Amino acid sequence: MRDVVLVKQSYPRYVGDGLGPMYTRLDDDDVYNWTATPVIGQIPQVPKTYAYLDGVYGVMNEHQVALGESTCGARLWAKPLSQGGNALFDIVELSRVAMERARTAREAITSGETLTVTDTTEAWIFHILPDDTGASAVWAAQRVPATEMAVVANQFVIRSIDVRDSANYLASTNLFDVAKRNGFWDGDDVEDFDFTASYAMVREHPNQYYSTRRVWRVFTLANPSLALSPTTDVFASDYPFSTRPAALLGPADLMRFQRDHYEGTAFDLTTDKASGPYGNPDRYSTGSAGADGQFERAISLFRTAYSYVTQASVLDPRLGVVWFGHYAPHATTYVPIYARVEATPNATARGSLRRFDNRTLFWANALLGNYGGLFYKLTSPVIRAASGAYEAAALAAHAAVAAHVATLSDADAVTYLTQTSADAAARALASATALFATLVTRFHDGYVVSNTTADEMGIAPMGYPQWWLRSAGYDYNDGNEIQVVAGALMGAALMIVVLGVAAGFAVGRYIALKQPSIQRVKA
């Protein structure tokens, strides 16, 4: 029998012996005496399961079936068995079962919130929610055409469903009955049935663009000539399910999309008043301020635990790779971790939100994101240049890796890919560590330092934009009689920097809800 556990969304998400050694040897067991994650049920086990890379959800298995997850609000919900309900599975455990048992994307869907499910030949968008009994589920899936792309941003996107077209649509048998029984749909004509309108939670103003704006942005980044308005209804009814990009997209393009803050648009988070004098795109929770309103929701979000791009190989099934980025996309470096490895790299598998660890990529990138955010318009080009150089080299090296793997047996290929992934992670960690030292050297105490290897360094003030000075009350108003002592100002500036970094640590440690690691799950 296979145990089904009650998965936690907070760290640690799982403690036990069922997935692999890193789940039993917690790095911070001296901080808290963790107990095993409770088992709430069992299902029959299959004779053989597949190894896979695991984050909060399953990522990619040895057969190159890959998942992406986007949490979506629904009109129905269910309690787990352990809390007085009837639900045995949540989407986390469902994703793991799919990884363990599926050799194709279609198998992952039919064995099984929103998942994107891909393999070497197909890509699907899969929506699932509890039914009205709380013991089963309603689900639907739509295939993405081979030459097109689809985007899910925390909201359902499947609309009409032709259940007769099984090549492009799949659905649970209760799809229409549950909607009609609960008054979500009038039941008159299945041709008029709309999955999103029937089952999605409606976002009220002012956050109605929380999801749709990101869909608009990715579509128009992929195809700038696409005539889409950034302003639409709550379900983006005038947007297509999928669209054809202007050119063939590669991993580097998807990395670029994930780092976006609407730069160059009317919604640019690096140029509005809230970004401050140095263009910080991060918008924190307002806390107890109680003000009504809504900040724009960026694609690259400061409180991200990880993001990734999956790449499957049609030519060699051993070459499935996950380009994995710890921490927020704009402050990360995407590291190639191959799906067929014996173990994931130490810098990507270890780590705790309860304790800073400079041996982990999450914390190395969190340093870059938090410190770099203080002077974002100055530090961002430096961070992008470093991550871009690493990723360009890694993408170029992928061809050489593929050529070498072609000469190896399956067993030798696993050993080689394990070491290749470990070396790539070690280089990324060394690069991030050195980059933080560079940022602190070049940007501190209100100055930009250059030519550090020359006889005389260049030192220039960071300065402030005029609009910010005016809004901050920088004028000759006699009511603002303030005397500034240069030495005291320098000390105060240094203290602000130090406290700012410390505050960033607190955000990363206590607000992030997901363990920042990727693990290999044994077969």
TrEMBL record:
<dbReference type="GO" id="GO:0006508">
    <property type="term" value="P:proteolysis"/>
</dbReference>
<keyword id="KW-0472">Membrane</keyword>
<keyword id="KW-1133">Transmembrane helix</keyword>
<protein>
    <recommendedName>
        <fullName>Dipeptidase</fullName>
    </recommendedName>
</protein>
<dbReference type="Pfam" id="PF03577">
    <property type="entry name" value="Peptidase_C69"/>
</dbReference>
<feature type="transmembrane region" description="Helical">
    <location>
        <begin position="484"/>
        <end position="512"/>
    </location>
</feature>
<keyword id="KW-0812">Transmembrane</keyword>
<dbReference type="GO" id="GO:0016805">
    <property type="term" value="F:dipeptidase activity"/>
</dbReference>
<dbReference type="GO" id="GO:0070004">
    <property type="term" value="F:cysteine-type exopeptidase activity"/>
</dbReference>
<dbReference type="InterPro" id="IPR005322">
    <property type="entry name" value="Peptidase_C69"/>
</dbReference>
<comment type="similarity">
    <text>Belongs to the peptidase C69 family. Secernin subfamily.</text>
</comment>
